[in-house]
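REVIEWER CHECKLIST
Item 1: Sequence provided? yes
Item 2: Single chain? yes
Item 3: Sequence as submitted:
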Amino acid sequence: MGDSQLPPFSMPTDRPTPKEVEELAARLTPEELLLLPFYHDLENELKQPERVRIQTEYFWRHWAPELGPTLTVLVITLRSYCYYNKLTKEKRDWAFPKQETLAQQIGVSRKTVLRTLQNPAAAHFIKREPRYRYDPATQKKVRTAAARASIRRSARCRPRAALASKLLATASSTSGPVSTLPCVT
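Item 4: Structure as written out by the authors:
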């Protein structure tokens, strides 16, 4: 066999052998071990199927019908800007997206986003706070275009569910333990 010819089925590769992978994994602590997704085709590379947006059954059953399709998708999109890091305990429940950006992300016009944010039901999930900057020329605070949006990660119970939960709690205090209704979205 010449130098340029390899034995059958032994293609050169820069991938580690299974034994090398096992040895490396044995040396790493759980904090150091980070599994990254590996895609076998371009379609999954583009779609990134591990990146999902999950909402609770409670949200879909009790809130989505009242919010309507546009506000439901807007709430879910705004929630995607938020996170809670369990390791550092950092919580981000706010965002500064432009209305144009939100409109593009959910497939509606900017006017539809503005109208949707004015829906009274939006207040259950979104609190808009105007932002200001100091203008040295006028020596006054000037309102900026972008407002800070505080996003509630979990909504209050619907009034009927809250009443049922209260009734169950009252019943449990008089007749023994009764489970209460979870109202987290």
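Item 5: Key structural point noted by reviewer: The radius of gyration is 26 Å.
Item 6: Recommendation: ____
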